[in-house]
Design a protein that fits this description.
The chain has 264 residues and is of the alpha+beta class. The chain has a single domain, classed as Jelly Rolls. The chain is built from six helices and 13 strands. The strands form two sheets. A nine-stranded antiparallel sheet has the order 1-11-8-13-6-5-4-3-2. The chain has a four-stranded antiparallel sheet with strand order 7-12-9-10, with no helix packed on it.
Length: 264
Protein backbone atom coordinates (compact mmCIF):
# COMPACT_ATOMS: atom_id res chain seq x y z
CA UNK A 1 0.00 0.00 0.00
CA UNK A 2 3.03 2.32 0.10
CA UNK A 3 3.59 4.83 -2.71
CA UNK A 4 5.48 3.75 -5.77
CA UNK A 5 7.95 6.15 -7.41
CA UNK A 6 5.42 7.50 -9.92
CA UNK A 7 2.81 8.12 -7.23
CA UNK A 8 5.37 9.81 -5.00
CA UNK A 9 6.45 12.19 -7.76
CA UNK A 10 2.83 12.97 -8.64
CA UNK A 11 1.90 13.65 -5.02
CA UNK A 12 4.85 15.98 -4.45
CA UNK A 13 4.13 17.87 -7.68
CA UNK A 14 0.34 18.15 -7.59
CA UNK A 15 -0.42 17.82 -3.88
CA UNK A 16 -2.92 15.00 -4.23
CA UNK A 17 -3.24 11.38 -5.32
CA UNK A 18 -6.20 9.31 -6.50
CA UNK A 19 -6.34 5.52 -6.26
CA UNK A 20 -9.39 4.19 -8.05
CA UNK A 21 -11.77 1.41 -6.96
CA UNK A 22 -9.67 0.28 -3.99
CA UNK A 23 -12.63 -0.96 -1.92
CA UNK A 24 -14.86 -3.75 -3.25
CA UNK A 25 -18.62 -3.44 -3.62
CA UNK A 26 -19.39 -5.76 -0.69
CA UNK A 27 -17.23 -3.59 1.59
CA UNK A 28 -18.92 -0.45 0.35
CA UNK A 29 -22.37 -1.94 0.87
CA UNK A 30 -21.55 -2.63 4.52
CA UNK A 31 -20.14 0.85 5.03
CA UNK A 32 -23.11 2.54 3.37
CA UNK A 33 -25.50 0.54 5.57
CA UNK A 34 -23.51 1.61 8.64
CA UNK A 35 -23.61 5.24 7.51
CA UNK A 36 -27.39 5.25 7.23
CA UNK A 37 -27.82 3.50 10.59
CA UNK A 38 -25.54 6.00 12.30
CA UNK A 39 -27.06 9.07 10.65
CA UNK A 40 -30.59 7.94 11.55
CA UNK A 41 -29.56 7.41 15.18
CA UNK A 42 -27.65 10.70 15.41
CA UNK A 43 -30.54 12.62 13.86
CA UNK A 44 -33.07 11.08 16.25
CA UNK A 45 -30.83 11.78 19.24
CA UNK A 46 -30.24 15.38 18.18
CA UNK A 47 -33.97 16.10 17.81
CA UNK A 48 -35.05 14.91 21.25
CA UNK A 49 -36.30 17.61 23.69
CA UNK A 50 -33.14 17.58 25.86
CA UNK A 51 -30.71 17.33 22.93
CA UNK A 52 -27.28 18.88 22.96
CA UNK A 53 -26.82 22.61 22.35
CA UNK A 54 -27.07 24.19 18.92
CA UNK A 55 -25.03 27.17 17.79
CA UNK A 56 -24.66 29.37 14.72
CA UNK A 57 -21.43 30.03 12.92
CA UNK A 58 -20.54 33.51 11.74
CA UNK A 59 -22.10 32.72 8.36
CA UNK A 60 -25.36 31.63 10.00
CA UNK A 61 -24.92 27.90 9.42
CA UNK A 62 -26.07 25.57 12.20
CA UNK A 63 -23.93 23.28 14.33
CA UNK A 64 -24.99 21.04 17.21
CA UNK A 65 -23.19 18.94 19.79
CA UNK A 66 -24.81 15.54 20.24
CA UNK A 67 -23.84 11.82 20.35
CA UNK A 68 -20.26 12.82 21.24
CA UNK A 69 -19.90 14.42 17.83
CA UNK A 70 -20.34 17.80 16.17
CA UNK A 71 -23.21 17.90 13.69
CA UNK A 72 -23.22 20.36 10.83
CA UNK A 73 -26.76 20.63 9.50
CA UNK A 74 -27.46 21.40 5.86
CA UNK A 75 -27.32 25.08 5.03
CA UNK A 76 -30.93 25.48 3.87
CA UNK A 77 -32.82 27.05 6.77
CA UNK A 78 -35.00 24.47 8.51
CA UNK A 79 -33.32 21.49 6.87
CA UNK A 80 -33.27 18.28 8.89
CA UNK A 81 -30.52 16.76 6.74
CA UNK A 82 -27.02 16.32 8.16
CA UNK A 83 -24.15 17.46 5.93
CA UNK A 84 -21.28 16.39 8.19
CA UNK A 85 -20.45 14.85 11.56
CA UNK A 86 -17.03 14.98 13.26
CA UNK A 87 -15.74 12.73 14.77
CA UNK A 88 -17.70 9.64 13.82
CA UNK A 89 -15.57 6.46 13.97
CA UNK A 90 -16.67 5.84 17.58
CA UNK A 91 -20.26 5.39 16.40
CA UNK A 92 -19.90 2.01 14.63
CA UNK A 93 -17.28 -0.78 14.72
CA UNK A 94 -17.02 -0.79 10.92
CA UNK A 95 -15.78 2.79 11.07
CA UNK A 96 -13.37 2.23 13.95
CA UNK A 97 -11.66 -0.57 12.02
CA UNK A 98 -10.75 1.82 9.20
CA UNK A 99 -8.00 3.49 11.24
CA UNK A 100 -5.86 0.35 10.99
CA UNK A 101 -6.67 -0.40 7.33
CA UNK A 102 -3.35 -0.36 5.45
CA UNK A 103 -5.06 0.93 2.30
CA UNK A 104 -5.89 4.15 4.14
CA UNK A 105 -3.03 4.37 6.61
CA UNK A 106 0.16 3.23 4.90
CA UNK A 107 0.38 5.81 2.08
CA UNK A 108 0.71 8.56 4.69
CA UNK A 109 3.98 7.10 5.91
CA UNK A 110 5.46 8.19 2.59
CA UNK A 111 3.36 11.34 2.20
CA UNK A 112 4.35 12.64 5.64
CA UNK A 113 7.85 11.11 5.56
CA UNK A 114 7.49 9.23 8.86
CA UNK A 115 7.79 5.65 10.10
CA UNK A 116 4.24 5.49 11.42
CA UNK A 117 1.07 7.55 11.67
CA UNK A 118 -1.83 7.95 14.07
CA UNK A 119 -5.37 9.41 13.89
CA UNK A 120 -5.94 13.15 13.99
CA UNK A 121 -9.66 13.55 13.22
CA UNK A 122 -12.41 12.04 11.07
CA UNK A 123 -15.51 13.24 9.28
CA UNK A 124 -18.54 11.65 7.69
CA UNK A 125 -19.56 13.87 4.79
CA UNK A 126 -22.99 13.70 3.15
CA UNK A 127 -24.37 15.45 0.09
CA UNK A 128 -27.95 14.31 -0.12
CA UNK A 129 -29.72 14.37 -3.52
CA UNK A 130 -30.60 17.90 -4.64
CA UNK A 131 -29.85 19.29 -1.17
CA UNK A 132 -26.14 18.72 -0.57
CA UNK A 133 -24.60 22.18 -0.53
CA UNK A 134 -21.32 23.40 -1.96
CA UNK A 135 -18.23 24.26 0.07
CA UNK A 136 -15.98 27.14 -1.08
CA UNK A 137 -12.20 27.18 -1.60
CA UNK A 138 -10.28 26.44 1.59
CA UNK A 139 -7.26 24.71 3.08
CA UNK A 140 -7.75 22.30 5.98
CA UNK A 141 -4.54 23.79 7.36
CA UNK A 142 -6.35 26.97 8.41
CA UNK A 143 -8.88 25.09 10.55
CA UNK A 144 -6.26 22.85 12.10
CA UNK A 145 -3.95 25.78 12.83
CA UNK A 146 -6.50 26.81 15.47
CA UNK A 147 -5.88 23.49 17.23
CA UNK A 148 -2.21 22.77 16.57
CA UNK A 149 -0.37 25.67 14.91
CA UNK A 150 3.03 23.98 15.09
CA UNK A 151 1.84 20.74 13.47
CA UNK A 152 -1.06 21.75 11.18
CA UNK A 153 1.12 21.32 8.08
CA UNK A 154 1.94 17.72 9.04
CA UNK A 155 -1.59 16.34 8.71
CA UNK A 156 -3.06 14.61 5.66
CA UNK A 157 -6.52 13.39 4.74
CA UNK A 158 -7.85 10.45 2.74
CA UNK A 159 -11.38 10.50 1.34
CA UNK A 160 -13.10 7.17 0.71
CA UNK A 161 -15.90 7.69 -1.79
CA UNK A 162 -18.87 5.50 -0.88
CA UNK A 163 -20.73 6.50 -4.05
CA UNK A 164 -19.63 7.37 -7.56
CA UNK A 165 -18.42 10.99 -7.47
CA UNK A 166 -19.19 13.34 -10.37
CA UNK A 167 -19.67 17.02 -10.98
CA UNK A 168 -23.45 16.57 -10.79
CA UNK A 169 -23.49 15.05 -7.29
CA UNK A 170 -20.94 17.36 -5.70
CA UNK A 171 -17.48 15.97 -6.39
CA UNK A 172 -14.33 17.49 -4.89
CA UNK A 173 -12.38 20.02 -6.97
CA UNK A 174 -8.67 20.51 -6.27
CA UNK A 175 -6.09 23.07 -7.38
CA UNK A 176 -2.90 21.19 -8.26
CA UNK A 177 0.32 22.66 -6.89
CA UNK A 178 -1.42 24.84 -4.29
CA UNK A 179 -0.02 22.88 -1.33
CA UNK A 180 3.22 24.76 -0.69
CA UNK A 181 2.03 27.23 1.94
CA UNK A 182 -0.92 29.09 3.47
CA UNK A 183 -2.97 31.15 1.03
CA UNK A 184 -4.64 34.51 1.87
CA UNK A 185 -7.93 34.24 3.69
CA UNK A 186 -11.13 35.84 2.43
CA UNK A 187 -11.59 39.19 4.24
CA UNK A 188 -15.34 39.00 3.55
CA UNK A 189 -15.76 35.56 5.14
CA UNK A 190 -17.43 35.94 8.56
CA UNK A 191 -15.95 32.62 9.72
CA UNK A 192 -12.39 33.91 8.87
CA UNK A 193 -11.29 30.45 7.61
CA UNK A 194 -12.07 30.41 3.88
CA UNK A 195 -9.55 31.23 1.17
CA UNK A 196 -9.88 34.48 -0.80
CA UNK A 197 -11.36 33.48 -4.19
CA UNK A 198 -10.16 36.76 -5.75
CA UNK A 199 -6.57 35.67 -5.17
CA UNK A 200 -6.94 32.14 -6.54
CA UNK A 201 -6.26 31.32 -10.17
CA UNK A 202 -8.84 28.55 -10.54
CA UNK A 203 -8.37 28.04 -14.29
CA UNK A 204 -6.41 24.85 -13.60
CA UNK A 205 -8.72 23.30 -11.03
CA UNK A 206 -9.39 19.60 -11.48
CA UNK A 207 -12.66 17.85 -10.85
CA UNK A 208 -12.03 14.56 -9.05
CA UNK A 209 -14.55 12.23 -10.63
CA UNK A 210 -14.06 8.67 -9.41
CA UNK A 211 -16.03 5.46 -8.95
CA UNK A 212 -17.25 4.33 -5.54
CA UNK A 213 -14.46 2.72 -3.54
CA UNK A 214 -11.82 5.15 -4.77
CA UNK A 215 -9.47 7.07 -2.48
CA UNK A 216 -8.30 10.69 -2.65
CA UNK A 217 -5.20 11.57 -0.59
CA UNK A 218 -4.12 15.17 0.04
CA UNK A 219 -2.16 17.26 2.58
CA UNK A 220 -3.62 19.99 4.75
CA UNK A 221 -2.30 22.81 2.54
CA UNK A 222 -4.01 21.74 -0.71
CA UNK A 223 -6.70 24.17 -1.89
CA UNK A 224 -9.97 22.38 -2.57
CA UNK A 225 -13.70 22.96 -2.79
CA UNK A 226 -16.81 20.97 -3.63
CA UNK A 227 -19.87 21.53 -5.80
CA UNK A 228 -23.51 21.26 -4.72
CA UNK A 229 -25.34 18.01 -5.39
CA UNK A 230 -27.79 18.88 -8.16
CA UNK A 231 -28.49 15.24 -9.00
CA UNK A 232 -30.88 12.58 -7.72
CA UNK A 233 -27.92 10.48 -6.49
CA UNK A 234 -26.23 10.23 -3.10
CA UNK A 235 -22.67 11.45 -2.54
CA UNK A 236 -21.42 10.02 0.75
CA UNK A 237 -17.79 10.02 1.80
CA UNK A 238 -15.61 9.01 4.74
CA UNK A 239 -12.70 11.30 5.63
CA UNK A 240 -9.86 10.14 7.87
CA UNK A 241 -7.02 12.52 8.76
CA UNK A 242 -3.65 11.14 9.84
CA UNK A 243 -0.60 12.70 11.50
CA UNK A 244 2.82 11.47 12.68
CA UNK A 245 2.40 8.91 15.46
CA UNK A 246 2.07 9.64 19.17
CA UNK A 247 0.47 13.06 18.80
CA UNK A 248 -2.87 13.98 20.45
CA UNK A 249 -6.07 13.77 18.46
CA UNK A 250 -7.93 16.95 17.63
CA UNK A 251 -10.57 16.19 20.28
CA UNK A 252 -7.83 16.34 22.93
CA UNK A 253 -6.66 19.80 21.85
CA UNK A 254 -8.02 23.27 22.63
CA UNK A 255 -9.86 25.21 19.90
CA UNK A 256 -8.29 28.68 19.62
CA UNK A 257 -9.81 30.33 16.54
CA UNK A 258 -8.08 33.62 17.29
CA UNK A 259 -4.81 32.02 16.16
CA UNK A 260 -5.85 32.15 12.49
CA UNK A 261 -5.27 35.90 12.55
CA UNK A 262 -1.57 35.07 12.54
CA UNK A 263 -2.05 33.68 9.02
CA UNK A 264 -2.10 35.64 5.74
Amino acid sequence: MRLNATEGDSFRRDGYLVRRAVFAEDELRGLRDAVEQVIAAVTEHAQRPDAGPEMRLGDGHRMQFSSQTVIQWEWREGSTEIRLIEPFTHLHPRFGALWSDARLRDPFKDMLGVDDVSPYTCKLNLKRPREGSEFPWHQDYTYWYAFTPEHAHEIGTVILFLDDASGENGAIRVLPGSHHGPVPRDPDDPTTFLADPRRIDARHERLVEAPAGSLLFFPSLLLHRSSPNTSARQRRAILLSFQPSDRPRQMELVWRPELVHELP
